[in-house]
Design goal:
alpha+beta; single chain; 5-stranded antiparallel β-sheet; about 20% strand; two-stranded antiparallel sheet; 7 strands; flat; about 190 residues
């Protein structure tokens, strides 16, 4: 590898590390602000804290859920004759062509859920022969350059339209991390179980 390419690669890795460090500092500041707001005894003060610009959207959502737990629940009341209404609706669907429409409307969400489950289910577990630096996408949407150590189990989620491999690994601290790896590099370095 030429010296110029090595210099450029080193600068890129250093810049990526600096960017990752600044993102980490922002996440830590947001987590500290979230802990401070959650410790407040007054729900009105916590509600006002939702507008704080120091909170990241994911931490703002956590605060919203915490506030929703404090608020009284809304009660849904069903009519007393709902059983009779359901029986009448099923009888109507059974004896008329509209039943096909009802079955179609029920089956479309079921097929969508099934497709989502198939898309998010891995089909192989692999290990790599050496340490790799990959750009991982974290659950809150930001990316970080992280080292994947040798013999870490990685789940292959599928391939992109370009043929590259989608990898996923579990981090106890952050959840699922996803990365895209070139198909030729995957073919050279991956060891299937």
């Amino acid at each position: 590898m030429s010296k110029r390419l090595q210099t450029l690669r080193k600068r890129f890795i250093d810049a990526k590390a600096d960017a990752d460090a600044s993102k980490r500092e922002v996440r830590q500041a947001s987590a500290a602000k979230l802990a401070e707001l959650r410790a407040l005894p007054d729900p009105a003060a916590r509600l006002a804290g939702l507008k704080d610009p120091a909170l990241l959207p994911s931490d703002r959502q956590v605060l919203e859920h915490a506030l929703a737990d404090v608020l009284p629940r809304r009660h849904i009341r069903f009519p007393r004759a709902i059983g009779a209404t359901l029986r009448s609706g099923l009888r109507h669907a059974r004896y008329h062509w509209r039943g096909l429409v009802v079955v179609t409307l029920i089956s479309i969400p079921a097929m969508m859920i099934g497709g989502f489950a198939v898309h998010n289910t891995g089909y192989a577990t692999v290990h790599f022969d050496r340490d790799l630096d990959l750009i991982w996408t974290l659950p809150d949407g930001h990316t970080e350059l992280r080292r994947l150590t040798t013999d870490t189990a990685v789940v292959v989620m599928g391939r992109t339209t370009a043929g590259d491999v989608r990898l996923r690994v579990w981090s106890p601290a952050e959840g699922h991390l996803e990365a895209i790896m070139l198909a030729e590099a995957y073919g050279r370095l991956a060891r299937k179980e």
